[in-house]
Amino acid sequence: MENASKALIIAASVLLAILIIAMGVAIFNKAQGAADTSSFDTAEINMFNQKFERYNNNQLGSQVKSLISFAISNASTNKEEPSKLPKVIFKAEKDEDNVTTESGMEASNKNEDYIDDLGKIRNAIISTHTYKVELSYANTGLIGEIKIAY
């Protein structure tokens, strides 16, 4: 009888240990998922993209300047999230005014250069001209590249 009660106590201890380990693994996985910023939900992707998509297609220079101003604001806000820093390619009327920014991790590592390049693009845009804006999407679903052509 004494051996049976000891066996039950040992079995309960083993079950309790397994339960504690399982809870620890579950908590670790949740914490790791919360720290992973590379995965975005659909609503967040749509909200981010929507701010850029309204500038898609032919736009007046003043609208393109607004787009670049938003990109500068976005770079300041999201410098810790490289996937939210799209590459911007500007093809100007004169080749010497062409500018291409870094993208993603490169842009976040050199955030000041990225913002400076966006400033150069904004200064090169003539408000009364019409520009073609094309958006390309990255694997994450976020806008990964913005092409602006005179």
Explain the layout of strands and helices:
Layout: H1 2-35, H2 42-53, E1 57-60, H3 61-77, E2 87-91, E3 99-100, H4 104-109, H5 111-124, E4 130-137, E5 143-149
Parallel strand pairs: 2-5
Antiparallel strand pairs: 1-4, 2-3, 4-5
Helix pairs in contact: 3-5
Summarize the structure in words.
The chain is α+β, with helices and mostly antiparallel strands. The protein has 2 domains: about 1-35; about 40-150, no CATH class. It contains 5 helices and 5 strands; from the N terminus they run ααβαββααββ. A 5-stranded mixed beta sheet has the order 1-4-5-2-3. Strand 4 and strand 5 (about 145-150) form a beta hairpin. Helix 3 runs antiparallel to helix 5. It is rod-shaped and about 95 Å long.
- Helix-strand topology string: HHEHEEHHEE
Question: What is the count of distinct domains?
Answer: 2
Largest sheet: 5 strands, mixed
Q: What structural category characterises the helix and strand content?
A: alpha+beta
* Topology, number of strands: 5
Proportion in helices:
55-70%
Q: Average the pLDDT over all residues and give the rounded result.
A: 81
Low-confidence parts, pLDDT < 50 over ≥5 residues? none
- Across the major sheet, the strand order is 1-4-5-2-3
Radius of gyration: 26 Å
Question: Helical region count?
Answer: 5
Task: Give the strand content.
Answer: 15-25%
State the distance separating the first and last CA atoms.
91 Å
Oligomeric composition of the shown chains: single chain
**Silhouette:** rod-shaped
